[in-house]
């Protein structure tokens, strides 16, 4: 049964005694398990072991495995992946925004404090048809990310930062593909320096004149 994502991120209704563990810390550990193992491969036993709780406590706090996964994805989006929208919003030019996005990805995807790569890009790979709605939820998030890149590029075109004939959708797809490829390379062991090289090479494909001081 498909679950409304907005509802999934709400804590499960408490039953009986208050929770005897730190829900946020438990969710952080669950996020790491899903990030490392993927949605289907992560077992309830692995999750509860990492979270330091029992299966009944998991169900009381989060509802079920699917709701736990969606809550973990939300935590990832607001934690390790929070820099993605900030890069697009804070930089003065589209070029600077995309470059920062890729360079920060090179840093974030290779940190030692969490699994490598991008959880949103990797967590639902190799899922069966039974988890199609999980894959769809992640695909929706990825599509939102590419839309953000496209909108930033369109803004750059309107400000004459790029040639008027620039295909914003195609350029956004290119940089989104680079971003996902970097995430995959990170899971295969690519170093931060290697991914920075990929990012800089991708930016050399930028159409038109590169802004100064970038």
In short:
The protein is mainly alpha-helical.
Topology record:
Layout: H1 5-8, H2 23-37, H3 44-51, H4 55-62, H5 65-78, H6 83-90, H7 94-108, H8 119-122, H9 132-158, H10 168-187, H11 192-203
Organism: Roseateles agri
DNA-binding region: 43-62
InterPro entries: DNA-bd_HTH_TetR-type_CS, Homeodomain-like_sf, HTH_TetR, Tet_transcr_reg_TetR-rel_C_sf
Tell me what the structure shows.
With 214 residues, the chain is an all-alpha fold. It is built from eleven helices and no strands. α7 packs antiparallel against α9 and α9 crosses α10. The longest helix has 27 residues. About 6% of the residues have low confidence. It comes from Roseateles agri.
Strand content: under 5%
Shape: elongated
**Low-confidence runs:** 5-16
What is the overall pLDDT average?
Answer: 89
Structural class: mainly alpha
| Order of SSEs | HHHHHHHHHHH
Strands, total number: 0
Biggest pleated sheet:
none
- Give the fraction of residues assigned to helices: 55-70%
Q: What is the tally of helical segments?
A: 11
DNA-binding region: 43-62
Protein name: TetR/AcrR family transcriptional regulator
Domain HTH tetR-type: 20-80
Keywords: DNA-binding, Repressor, Transcription, Transcription regulation
Task: Describe this protein with a few key phrases.
63% helix; transcription; 214 residues; DNA-binding; 11 helices
């Amino acid at each position: 049964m498909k679950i409304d994502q907005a509802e999934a991120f709400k804590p499960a209704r408490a039953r009986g005694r208050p929770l005897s563990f730190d829900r946020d810390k438990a969710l952080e550990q669950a996020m790491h398990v899903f990030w490392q193992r993927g949605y289907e491969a992560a077992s309830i036993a692995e999750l509860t072991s990492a979270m330091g709780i029992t299966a009944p406590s998991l169900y009381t706090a989060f509802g079920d495995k699917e709701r736990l996964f969606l809550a973990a994805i939300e935590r990832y989006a607001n934690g390790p992946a929070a820099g993605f929208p900030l890069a697009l919003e804070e930089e003065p030019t589209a070029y600077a925004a995309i470059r920062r996005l890729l360079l920060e990805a090179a840093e974030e995807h290779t940190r030692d404090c969490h699994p490598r790569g991008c959880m949103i890009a990797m967590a639902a790979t190799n899922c069966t048809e039974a988890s199609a709605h999980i894959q769809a939820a992640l695909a929706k998030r990825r599509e939102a990310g590419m839309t953000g890149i496209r909108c930033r590029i369109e803004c750059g075109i309107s400000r004459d930062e790029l040639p008027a004939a620039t295909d914003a959708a195609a350029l956004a797809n290119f940089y989104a593909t680079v971003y996902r490829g970097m995430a995959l390379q990170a899971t295969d062991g690519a170093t931060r320096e290697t991914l920075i090289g990929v990012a800089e090479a991708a930016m050399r494909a930028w159409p038109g004149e590169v802004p100064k001081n970038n």
